[in-house]
Design goal:
The protein has twelve helices and eight strands. By secondary structure, the protein is of the alpha/beta class. It has a single domain, classed as Aldolase class I (TIM Barrel, Alpha-Beta Barrel). Strands 1-2-3-4-5-6-7-8 form an eight-stranded parallel barrel, surrounded by six helices. Strand 7, helix 11 and strand 8 form a beta-alpha-beta unit. Helix 1 packs parallel to helix 2 and helix 9 packs across helix 11. It is globular, with a radius of gyration of 17 Å.
Amino acid sequence: MRVPIIAGNWKMHKLPEEAVALCRDLIPRLGKLDDREVVLCPPFTALPAVGEAIRGTKLSLGAQNVFYEISGAYTGEVAPPMLKALGVKYVIIGHSERRQYFGETDEMVNRKMQAALDHGLLPIVCVGETLEQREAGITESLVKSQIEQGFKGIAEGYAKEIVVAYEPVWAIGTGKTATAEEANRVIKVIRETLAGIYGNATAAAMRIQYGGSVKPGNMAELMGQPEIDGALVGGASLDAVSFARIVRYDD
């Protein structure tokens, strides 16, 4: 039985004090969280404050990016051991905004995944198509390639711990959402691709989220699909009431 995982990607929002205030508002609204996992991914500058604010709860701390070297002359980058030292458990890798604005490639995603895993961090690796790619009818072949390239050389023992997030780029921050059936269809392709790499048992154990304008009104329908194991939530995770409703599948 796959445990659903809902991650809030705060992107470039919230000063440390604002992040703490959001945590304090959110935590009592979430309930016991006995049957699902919730991850908060604040910006780097708020990681220590959020880590302290969620200490003693069942919430996990996540980062939004990581570099693939452990030290060196890489101005502006953050290494896996640095995140680990802050109590980070998960790290988002290959988000479409990183690919679009910062030129991240599948090869870079693969190197970041390897580095994260080598230092005890669990990747939430993102795949998904642009509107142009969708209209060209290459969604399935594209996500298949992103998975194959991203997971190249990743050992099966590690694979079970990795979370995949299918996030159609055309649905991120646009208010547009893939239908639950459409998201489920693509996620099934992702799982079948993973099965081709690691076998059916491992693929069946891996958690695959949907991301792209997730909100309280569509979360229950998304989670009613057999292949969808949670959500990577952007803007709605910045509001305690909305995010708590998403976590509870409360529309």
